[in-house]
Amino acid sequence: MKLLTYSVNNNPSPRFGFKIENRIVDICNAAQWISDNQNNDHFLSIPKTLKESLMTWNNNYSILKQLEDYVINLDINSFSYNESDLVILPPVPDPPAFRDFYAFEQHVRAARKLRGLEMNPDWYKIPIFYFSNPNCCYGHGAEIPYPSKTTELDFELEFAIIIGNGGTDIKSEHAENVIAGYTILNDWSSRNLQREEMPMSLGPAKGKDFASSFGPYMVTPDELEDSWDENRKLHLRMTCHVNDKKISDGNTNDLYHSFGKMIERASMNTKLIPGEYIGSGTVGTGCILELRPENTGGWLKKNDVVRMEIEKLGVLENKII
Fold first, then answer.
1. How much is the pTM?
2. Which domains does the chain have, with CATH numbers?
3. Which of 191, 220, 236, 314 could be joined to 252 by an S-S link, Cβ 3.0–4.6 Å?
């Protein structure tokens, strides 16, 4: 399923839906319509938000799949919208936490080389992450305010998982029990602010915490079943265009540390909460820092449009204002 959070007609109250072709089925409205018109109240138990649904994800996902199968045979116009008419919010607009890992070797190697550093052999032993700001999440189509005191604004092409069920000390082989779905992530970065922080061995903080974009959907694992190889590597092409010029071109299969290993590390001695985001880190070629501004047309500027696309996950586009 492709699940999403959205609003209608500039109403700030978020709605919960799923995609069928170019229509977005409003889950609450569909459940109510079926109850009123077909005397079937089974679907009224579905929570009103994706975040709430993730609390007991296995049960709720089962009912959501049943609803999807049910409405396919109905005229859905009574309880659905054209996607283009909606304001698309992050799948979880208010996550309890957002951990971003550093798990693509090509990007790590290139970033360290720019600082005159060799690869740290410990990087291969454990997946590492930083905590980003869960209070500055933007969705597809949102305008991103250019951050103050920034002279080198960058994008970072990533993908992320969303936690369902939650848990503590989760082993990597059991990670599928808490991966509710996948989404595109743009980890916006102020490189000059980040450069101030990192020499002091603490960060990134202000270089990152002004904006993160997620979306447009949370794509459930069953949608990606045929994209895994025999080594359990996920193969999805990842691209980023700035003002229609392709800047980045990578693939999820270059991920060195699996999401299973990330989950094991993240949940060690603590509890992962349903609705959390866990980011992959930047794919190789996935930012201006790595490619260098002289090769890409410079750092990002106001009015630039950044368009990220990942196979089967959709398109995440934002304009800088």
1. 0.97
2. 2-89 (no CATH), 98-320 (3.90.850.10)
3. 236
Structure tokens, 232 = 């359990």
Pull the structure tokens for residue 291: 């490619």
Neighbours of 22 (CB within 10 A): 10
**Alpha-helical runs (H) found in the chain:** 27-38, 50-53, 57-71, 105-114, 191-197, 259-266, 288-291, 293-296
Taking every pair of C-alpha atoms in the chain, what is the biggest distance, in angstroms?
Answer: 68
Q: Taking Cα atoms as reference points, which of 186, 226, 250 lies closest to residue 312?
A: 226
Structure tokens at 316: 């995440």
Q: What does the alpha-carbon distance between residue 276 and residue 134 come to, in Å, rounded to a whole number?
A: 9
* pLDDT tens-digit series, residues 55-104: 999 999 999 999 999 999 999 999 999 999 999 999 999 999 999 999 99
**What DSSP element (H or E) covers 278?**
strand 277-279
For 164, other C-beta atoms within 10 Å of its C-beta total 26
- Half-sphere exposure of residue 73, counting CA atoms within 13 Å on the CB side? 5
Query: Can you say how many angstroms the Cα of residue 316 is from the centroid of all Cα atoms in its chain?
Result: 9
